[in-house]
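C-alpha cells as discussed.
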C-alpha cells in the first residue's frame, strides 16, 4: 500500500484517481492547488505525488520546483497538453513520469507501481566505485558526476539513465531495453520519453555528452572509444 498525494484543481479528476487508488488498497490525500501540495509535502509521509500542471494559486511546475528543494518524493505530472516543451520542463524539475489527459486510471496506477518498484530496488553498494574517462568522473556509489572538475546536477531519472548506460558501457542498448530497465518492466509511457531524457542528459554532461552515441534504428551506447 502506498500513501498517494493527488493534486488537481478539478474535483472530478481527484475523485476518479482517489477512487481507483483506494480500490487497489492505497491511502489517498487530495489537494486542489500547488500551495497546499507544498504544505502537505513539507509535513511528509507520502510515497508518491500525482500533480496537475494548470492550477490556481500555484501551478504544478512551480510547486514541483519548490518541493524538489526539500524532498525527493517520486512525482507523476498530469497535463491536458502533450507538448515536448512541457515534458522537458517537467523532467528538468525532476519529475519521474508525465501523463497526458485524458488517461486511464488503471494505467496511472500501473505507472505508480513501476515508479515505486524502481525506487525500492535501488540499494547502495558497499564498495566505492569511481569511473574516470577524459573530462568525466563518476562516483557510482555516491551517484555523483563531475565534468571538467565541476559537479553536474541532474534529475533523478537522468542519473538512473546515465548510470545504466555507464554500467553497460560499450554495449549497444536497444530503446526497448533502456525503457524496460530504467523505467520499469511495466512502463506504459511514450517511448519518446527516452529521447527527451537523452537530450537532457547530453545537455547536462556538456563536454562529456560525446560518450553517449546514437545508434540509428537501434538505440544508444556509452562509447569509451570516442
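Sequence:
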Amino acid at each position: 500500500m502506498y500513501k498517494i498525494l493527488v493534486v488537481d484543481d478539478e474535483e472530478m479528476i481527484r475523485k476518479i484517481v482517489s477512487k481507483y487508488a483506494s480500490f487497489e488498497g492505497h491511502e489517498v490525500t487530495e489537494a486542489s492547488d500547488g500551495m497546499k501540495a507544498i504544505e502537505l509535502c513539507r509535513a511528509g509521509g507520502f510515497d508518491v505525488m500525482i500533480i496537475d500542471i494548470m492550477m490556481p494559486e500555484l501551478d504544478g511546475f512551480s510547486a514541483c520546483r519548490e518541493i524538489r528543494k526539500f524532498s525527493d518524493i517520486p512525482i507523476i505530472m498530469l497535463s491536458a497538453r502533450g507538448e515536448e516543451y512541457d515534458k522537458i520542463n517537467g523532467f528538468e524539475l525532476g519529475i519521474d513520469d508525465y501523463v497526458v489527459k485524458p488517461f486511464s486510471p488503471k494505467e496511472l496506477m500501473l505507472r505508480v507501481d513501476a515508479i515505486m518498484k524502481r525506487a525500492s530496488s535501488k540499494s547502495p553498494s558497499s564498495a566505492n566505485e569511481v569511473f574516470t574517462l577524459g573530462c568525466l568522473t563518476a562516483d557510482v556509489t555516491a551517484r555523483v558526476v563531475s565534468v571538467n572538475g565541476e559537479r553536474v546536477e541532474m534529475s533523478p531519472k537522468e542519473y538512473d539513465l546515465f548510470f545504466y548506460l555507464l554500467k553497460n558501457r560499450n554495449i549497444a542498448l536497444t530503446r526497448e531495453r533502456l525503457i524496460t530497465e530504467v523505467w520499469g518492466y511495466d512502463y506504459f509511457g511514450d517511448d519518446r520519453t527516452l529521447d527527451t531524457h537523452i537530450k537532457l542528459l547530453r545537455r547536462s554532461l556538456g563536454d562529456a555528452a560525446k560518450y553517449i552515441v546514437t545508434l540509428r534504428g537501434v538505440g544508444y551506447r556509452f562509447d569509451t572509444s570516442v
